[in-house]
Amino acid sequence: MAARPSSPWLTVVGVGEDGELSAAASAALAAAAHVVGGERHLSLVPASACPRAERRAWPSPMLPFLDVVMGWRGEATVVLASGDPLLHGVASTLLGRVNREEMTVLPSVSSLQLACAAMLWPVADVRLVTACGRPVEALAAELFDGERVILFSADGRTPAAAARLLVAHGYGGSRLTVLERLGGPQAQAHAMTAQDMGDRAFDDLNTVAIELVAGPEARLLSRAPGLPDDAFENDGQITRREIRALTLARLAPAPGALLWDVGAGSGSIGIEWMRAAPRARAIALEPRADRAERARGNAARLGVPMLDMREARAPEGLAGLPRPDAIFLGGGATAERVVEICWAALQPGGRLVANAVTLETEARLVAARASLGGDLTRLQIANADAVGRMTGWRPAMPVTQFAAVKPR
């Protein structure tokens, strides 16, 4: 194993459209043996600024070339990036490859700051969504009347894709300002409503400022667990709204935490887990291809397109998965030894929650409580319904819920 360098060898420099560099950035470039960046970034930095360096443009795809960059370990290397390289930028990717003491980041003004300045929006009051390397459907999780969103575009077609999403969700009256080449002499702003956007294309370097306006057909879908059942396309294989809210409360979504949703059905538990906490992740297992595809559609429509949906059955499909912080067993609780396998995989301090509606599955949960501890709760929901010309309570099937926290 190569020895760790005693001082930073890798400097990530944020470059704005004006090409202005700080004294520290200029010094790093002057000393660099290697400089790598996008063609646009390299064009903003003259060769005279890095006279000793070999200059390389990122190939496409970029990620495999990171192995080449890691091969320069110990040699002064500068990576050029846009604005703040730690704000959905390459520096975040590089942190997964190097130790902190090996890297220095020199940011310039970010596109988020420039966009908020152009709109006169306080930065602390906006939501940030990126479509760079991610589906634009993530915007759907931010749809609340009056909210302000800054969207980082992947290319010149992203604003139109975002506008189509807004129209589909009843937010066609939302105001979009497409900000091209922020911070440079060619900066331009184009304002219109989502419903007036059409298929218009813009400069590939653009950021979109969105003022959300809910139309009469828009639906409020809170981030709090317990969305209406009809928010999910389903064939009846769904954890019902009230039971789902109680289940998520036991699972306790947390920022960046990973959930296994075993026997996902419509994907409702994993989807609400991801909506409930920043950066929350979920791996959902569902053996039926039609249900898995339906869950993927639900995830995209509800703003969490990064749901990791796998067509697999427990316990076989659990092999090799990263250790979770929480596990929900819905349709998967009946498989032989799945409770024990999940418990063994769970991180210390993690939560296991399983729901049963049949006596056979309930027996497994009673046995799990005897061996693992935890709580058993009987949940009974009844809804008002017509009884002839009057109204009465119509009970749903009772649910037995097992919940346990793994000792640290």
From TrEMBL:
The keyword Membrane does not apply. The lineage of its organism: Bacteria, Pseudomonadati, Pseudomonadota, Alphaproteobacteria, Hyphomicrobiales. Pfam families: TP_methylase. The keyword Transport does not apply. GO terms for molecular function: protein methyltransferase activity. It comes from Methylopila turkensis. This is Precorrin-6Y C5,15-methyltransferase (Decarboxylating). One of its GO terms (biological process) is methylation. Pathway: Cofactor biosynthesis; adenosylcobalamin biosynthesis. It comes from the Bacteria. Residues 13-195 form the Tetrapyrrole methylase domain. Keywords: Cobalamin biosynthesis, Methyltransferase, S-adenosyl-L-methionine, Transferase.
